[in-house]
Structure formats: C-alpha cells, structure tokens
Write a structure and sequence with these properties.
The chain is an alpha/beta fold. Bound molecules: pyridoxal-5'-phosphate (PLP).
C-alpha cells in the first residue's frame, strides 16, 4: 500500500516541506506589509485592509460615531458612503454639493453634538470635480470637526506624487481619515482600506464588521497592489505623466468640438445630453476598438448623459490620438460635431 521511503524520496519530501514553510512564512506578512506601505504612502500612522472600499466605507462610521455625534455629508457622496452612514446612529446632516456656506450652516447646527465628522469624496466621479478641501478643513477647525475623504478617484495620480486630493490641495495633515480602493489606479483587481490615526485603526480591527466577518483579500491581489504602491513610492514619474496625457485628450477633444466636463481630472466626461445617443455612440466606439461606457439617468441627472473616458498612465500618445479620432468619426456620424 505504501511506497517504502528511499533516501531520495525523503530528501524530496524534506525539500518540499522547506519550500512550503518559506512560502507560508512570506504569506504571513503579505497583508501587514501592504498596510504599512499604504500608511507610508498616505503619510498616516496606520492602515487596515478590506475586501473593497465599499466595505471600508460600510465599516467605518458605525464604529466611530454614536447617537451623540453628528456626521455632515456632501449630498453627492458615493453610494457606499451613504450606505455606511445609514449604518451608524449619529445625527445626519447633508450639505449641498461642495457648498461651503451650507456646510457652515450645518456645522453650526451640529455644535451641541459630542463629535462632528465632515465626510466627502475627494473627487466626485461623475464630473471629476475636486472637493474644496482647504475651505472644508478651515471650517472643520473653526467648528471642532474631523475630516474624512474617500479617495477612490484620486489615489495614485492626483497631486505631485500621486498621493491624492489632500496632497494636491496641501491639506494632508488636516484630513484625519482617508478611505480608498485598490481596484482603480492601484492595479484594478479588488480591495480597499482605511488610513488614519493608529488608535482608530486598532479600534476598526476590533469592531469593524466587514473586516471581522468577511474573508481577507486574496494573497495574489495583495501582491499586485503591493507592487503598484512600491512603484509609486519609488518614483513620481507615473503620477506626473498623467497630467500631460489627460491634457492631450481634453485639448484635442475640445478642439474637435466636444464638451468635456471638469477641468483637469483624468476622468473626462464627454457630455452628450441624450441617454440613447450616449449608448449608441459608446457601441460605435467599440467598433473602433475603444471600450467606453455611456452613463445616463439614474447614475447621472436626467439630460446629462455622457460617455466617461478615463485616461490611464499606461496609455501612449498614439492610444490617445486613436481614441480622439474614433470620437471624431462617431461624433460626426451621430451629428454631435460637424
Ligand atoms: C468614490 C467611491 N467610493 C467607493 C467605491 C467602492 O470601491 P470598491 O470598488 O473598492 O468597492 C467606489 C467605486 O466605484 C467609488 O467610486
């Protein structure tokens, strides 16, 4: 039934055990290593990984805020932030989109609360508009509030070193908590995280439900994301290349007669207005080898349908020119430009 061990088979078995030991001992630190690198990247004390940023947003507010606290949230914040806030029992105050006067009114209203947290996307994904973080931090300091930003549309490419909106606007040390994703600029597979003060991260490890009651990120995803962060930590070149690529696309499209919302973000919404037109044009772009998606109501307001183009550091100038040419041809076909 059993093979009789020979010196060779014992040696092979011993070698395999050693390999497995080294494999598992390096896996043991894989997640902690990425958490440390992300904390270093964002210049915060500590980091906790989640399976997604949706989970990071779902797991934060309930732990941090109780019924005696208040949360002040931009009305156009991402759905995952809205859901995360729904799970906590704090007083909820929604301020008008990027409106500092309205935020001040709401901060005054929340003065009797024990703790106040201002919550905003760093960049709002549908229009690529950047939150007025300097004004938000000024008001937060004036009215004794903390600031949280969701950096899914900023991490890895916004700011001189790609650190995000807080770096771009010079407020890194004035924003206390950052959530972001590994699923966009940092590799595109999956994963999310919170960075912030160490006591907060320690608390999340004990209490945050999506962290406690769900699987950890698969090691292969952690490995890919770690390499992406290492590349960004080693050089600013990738982050800085984004500005030139983005402006190439935006300028050429504007010259061709298209309307591109926002000013400089790599999310370039090609505004078309009509939902059917956006969908037909996106289908035609695919025939030119360009994969873009038409967005319409309810994802964006009625009458503001668009094709959302996202520029990547991996695009070459030729890729960008090919994309613009495809837009010109399909735009002429559908009467969007002459
Ligand atoms: C602003 C914002 N926050 C959170 C998320 C969720 O990120 P993830 O895909 O990692 O769950 C997204 C994803 O689209 C997003 O745009």
């Amino acid at each position: 039934m059993y093979d009789i061990p020979t010196p060779t088979s014992v040696a092979v078995w011993f070698h395999n055990c050693k390999t497995a030991f080294f494999f598992f001992s390096s896996l043991k630190n894989l997640h902690k290593n990425l958490e440390q690198k992300l904390a270093e990247f964002h210049e915060r004390e500590d980091c906790i990984l989640y399976a997604s940023c949706f989970d990071a947003n779902a797991g934060l507010f309930e732990v941090l805020l109780g019924p005696d606290d208040a949360v002040l949230s931009d009305e156009l914040n991402h759905a995952s932030i809205i859901d995360g806030i729904r799970l906590c029992r704090a007083k909820r105050l929604r301020y008008k989109h990027m409106d500092l006067s309205d935020l001040e009114v709401k901060l005054k209203e929340a003065q009797s609360s024990r703790m106040r947290l201002v919550v905003t996307d760093g960049v709002f994904s549908m229009d690529g508009d950047v939150a007025p973080l300097r004004g938000i931090c000024d008001l937060a300091e004036q009215y004794g509030a903390m600031v949280f930003i969701d950096e899914c549309h900023a991490t890895g490419f916004l700011g001189p070193r790609g650190r995000g909106t807080d770096e771009l606007l010079g407020v890194t040390d004035r924003v206390q908590i950052v959530n972001s994703t590994l699923g966009k600029a940092l590799g595109g597979a999956a994963g999310g995280y919170t960075v912030g003060p160490k006591p907060l991260i320690d608390l999340l490890r004990q209490r945050s439900r999506p962290y406690l009651f769900s699987n950890a990120l698969p090691p292969a995803v952690v490995g890919c994301a770690t390499r992406a962060v290492e590349l960004l930590l080693a050089s600013n070149e990738i982050a800085q290349s984004m500005t030139a690529k983005t402006m190439r696309f935006r300028n050429k499209m504007t010259q061709a007669g298209f309307t591109i919302a926002g000013s400089s973000h790599p999310i370039c919404p090609v505004m078309l207005g009509d939902a059917r037109l956006a969908s037909l044009m996106a289908d035609d772009m695919l025939k030119h080898g360009i994969y873009v998606i038409g967005f319409s109501y309810p994802v964006v307001p009625k009458g503001k349908a668009r094709i959302r183009v996202q520029i990547s550091a991996a695009h070459t100038d030729d890729d960008i020119d090919h994309c613009v040419d495809a837009f010109i041809q399909t735009g002429r076909k559908h009467g969007v430009i002459s």
